[in-house]
Every structure is written in C-alpha cells, then in structure tokens.
Amino acid sequence: MSINVLLVDDEAVDLEWLRRRVLASGLDITVVGTVSSGFNALKVMEEERVDIILSDIRMPIMTGTEFARRAKVVNPKTKIVFISGHEDFSYAKEAIEINASGYLLKPVEDKDLYEMLGSLCAKMEQEREQDRSYIEALSLVNKELLLRWFEEGRTDPAEPHLRSHLTSLLQKGSAAAIVEIDDLEWKMRDLPEEEVRNRTRQITDMIKAFVEEAKLGTLIAVQHTRFVILAALSQENFLHQLEELVGKVAEKSPYTVTVGVGRYAQEETGLHESYQQAQAALSAKWLLGKNRLIRDTTESLPRGTPGAFLEQTVDRLLEAIIQYDLVAIDDHLLELFTKDLPAAGKKDVYGLIIRITSKLHADLQQQNENLYELLQWESHQPDILFQFETVHDILSWLRRRFFELSEQLYVKRQRQKRKLIDEIMRYVEENLEKKITLKEVAVHFDFTPNYLGYLFKEEYGLPFSEYVNERKTNRVTELLSDPTLKIYEIADRMGYKNIIYFNRQFKQITGMTPGEYRKKNKI
Predict the structure, then answer these.
(1) Among 295, 321, 349, which residue terminates a domain?
(2) Are residues 171 and 270 located together in one domain of the fold?
(3) Strands, sheet with 176-181, edge to edge from the N-terminal-most edge strand
(4) Which residues are CB-contacts of 206 (< 8 A; sequence separation ≥ 6)?
(5) Which domain holds residue 313?
(6) Is there a single domain that holds both residue 228 and residue 355?
(7) Series of mean pLDDT values for 10-residue runs along the chain (523 residues)
(8) 58, 94, 130, 359: which sits with the fewest CB atoms below 10 Å from its CB?
C-alpha cells in the first residue's frame, strides 16, 4: 500500500519545489495534497488517509507546531517532519515535545530529504506489518472460541491460548463493537441467489477494508450480516472511526449499518461485559432506529407496560380514521408506540399491533366494514411485519396502511352519500306532483329527518325544502307552457289546494305570478 504524504508551506514556490522533489524520490509515495495553511491541511486529513506530513514550522495564523498538535488528534499515527531555517531552530524544543518524527533545515539537500522519507517509509511499512500480524494473529478457530467466550453468560477466564491476545489488546484499553448490516434479508428476498451473494460480498468487503485501513482492531465475522470489532484504538478515535464507517457505508452502498458499542475496559471481565453492552445497544436499534452508532441505551428506552388508556387511544385512532383526519391518525399512532410501548422487544410490539388491529377490526365490523379486506391483508398477522428491524419501520408501515384505510373509507362514504343523494333526487322527481316533506322522505330512506337534511345540504348545497320548491317551480313552468292547461288546474295537479298560496309561492321564486309569466312568454 502506497505511503500518503501531505505537504504544507505558505510559500507557493517552496511548496511546488518540495512536491516535485518528493515525487522524484523513487519511493512508493503518493502526494495527497499540497496546501498553504494548517487549516487546509486539517481539512485534507478529514478526507484522506495521511501517513506523513512535511510542514514548514513557521506559518502565519497557525504555526506548524500548532497544526501538528491538531493533526495528532485527528490521526495519532501520522508522522510529522518539520522544515525550517536556522533562525527558527528555537522551535525544535516544541517539535520534540509534540513527538515530531524529524526535522530538516533549509535549504534541504536531496540526500537529507530522501534519507528522511526512506526511513519513515520503512518505519511505516514495519508498523503496518505489525498491525497486519496483530489483526491476523487469531486463526478462524481461535476467533470462534473467542466469540463463544463472549456469548457465555458467565465471565469465566478466557482460554490460555486466547489470553495472550486479550492481554495485548487490553494494555491500552479496548471495547467491543458489533456491526450489523440493516435490512439485508428482506431487501434481497426477490433477487437471484447469485446476485444476493455478490451484493453481500461487496458490502462485507467494504466493512473489512475499512476496518483494516483505519486499523480499528480485530474483526470477527459472526454471520454474513454481523461482525464484531475489538478496538485497537483509543476510545475517542475508535468511536470516531465507527461513525465514519456508518457514514461511508450509507454513502457508498444502497445499504446501511448499525453499530452497537460497549464501554472501554482494561481487563478480561470488563471486555466480556463490553460485548454484552454492545449486544444490548444493538438490540436497541429496534426502538432507537438504524443507520447509526448506539452506545448507552439506559436513558433512551421507554419504560413500563402497555398503558391502561390503550383502549381509549385506539378508539380515538378509529375516529380519526373514519373522519379522514391524517394528522390525528399520526398523533394517535405516535402515542401508542411511544407512551404505551414496552421496552421488552419485538414480541411486545407485535402483541400491541395485534391488539390495535383486532380492536379496529371489531369496531369497523359494527359499521359493516372489514379491516383485513379493506387493507387486503392475507391474514390477521401479515408476514411483512416480521421482516422489519425497527419499531420506526413498523410505525411507518402502519401509518401508510391506516392513511390508506382512512382514504378508502372516505371515498366509499362519498360514493355512498352520492348514491343516496341521487336516489333522493330521483324520488323527488318521481313525486313532484305530490306533497313532499323531509320527514316523509327520511322515513322512506330509513334516516332521521335531521341527519338526512344535514347530509342533503352538505352534498347538494341547498336545504332540502328549497331544493323541492325549486324542482316544483321548474315543473310548474313546464306545465304553464301548455296553453290548454288552466292555472288552477296546474296548481291542483302540483298538490296546491290553495290557489293564492300557489301564486305567492311561484312569485317568491320567479319574481312573477303564473299569469304574469304566461304574459311575458306570450303563452
């Protein structure tokens, strides 16, 4: 693997001169950046792996030594070489204090530069070999034994041949992290077997390459979707790199990973506990969500058992579904899955879902509706529920289905209302020449007069009585167009027993009496 070098100097000419000479060294070196300030150099370090830094020691705003201190925080293993003139030699003491790897005086001779680079490259390669040997020290058998030791409920001492590895690992402290690929099973369920293998291998290789490049520590594959990492970095750097892993997988692949991590330990029992803590943290993905690093969950998990007010909340949920109130549906679902949700795990959540859907189904049956038919569920416990990895996924799925249910019921009601109004209007047309009252029509259609009157006005926009008068008047104008019919005959035919009331009613609507209407229209 090539050695990555970063060059830092506020003088553009010196920087280009240095770049050309470094590339001409004949060593396996890649210049990943040439920058004119410590600030820009730190940005490069956030994006690239930097093994060696050659930096001018005297720069404005941020000196080389100040930059070096910050660079060591980003990557403690980076080798830093300062370049300065004789008058800056007072900086040498600071360079020694921050453990610089070398010091070159201007003007730098090629011989001195190449000797320094060659020495550092050899040292880097030696360290890499040691890291590789350390990471690969455990055979597959020993990794399996170590995994079994972690899985044991008791904290018995590890096998003697594993203890030397653990002792070395724990000298500077270590922690266990468990990486799980999210949703891999159900996202690939419809793919051909060969495609599943290829995609799984790609994301697995990505995780392994990251662990090796970042020197995270010992990697143990638990299964094709889960890996254990035993930290070989300081706590701060380990957590930072795990966050980087989560972000990189989400950025570079169509999948995500969730990482549970335990506390740092310096002895076997503590590391065993760290693994249990990592497992507990990862299991909290169910409640806290995926595509993230999860550490301490003790303050995050909901407590308690399904609330005593669950029945009332489901009643309010049903009312919101019937009223087509999507905001209220969401509010009540959140209430059910936060306030009333137990922390025990999936079984409890499935139990809660069954209680909710069973009650909704029973309440809808009283309205001659079937929840499972409306949602087209093949059974009362659809298999898809058991494929979700987090409660957020289930909540999102239920939200979509209940929105869909609410819309279906709304559309169905609108069709039923429209059909009822059409039937009422047809009834009115068929009985225009009779006396028609809201009470009589309500009895005919088996509704209360108040509800039918409200429904008719809501759908048609006119009170029922005004609609009837309007339709009767239209029929009267049709009859008035027949000159063979007398006005009193028309009034009698239309159910008016009082000719004066008939005239007044017609004039109130048209602005003229029946006789005036005929005169105007020359009938």
Answers:
(1) 295
(2) yes
(3) 217-223, 226-231, 176-181, 257-261, 293-294
(4) 248, 249, 252, 253
(5) 308-413
(6) no
(7) 88 90 91 92 90 87 85 87 71 65 85 92 82 57 80 72 73 90 80 87 91 89 88 90 93 91 90 87 74 69 49 85 90 78 60 73 75 64 62 83 88 84 90 86 87 85 88 88 88 85 87 88 81
(8) 130
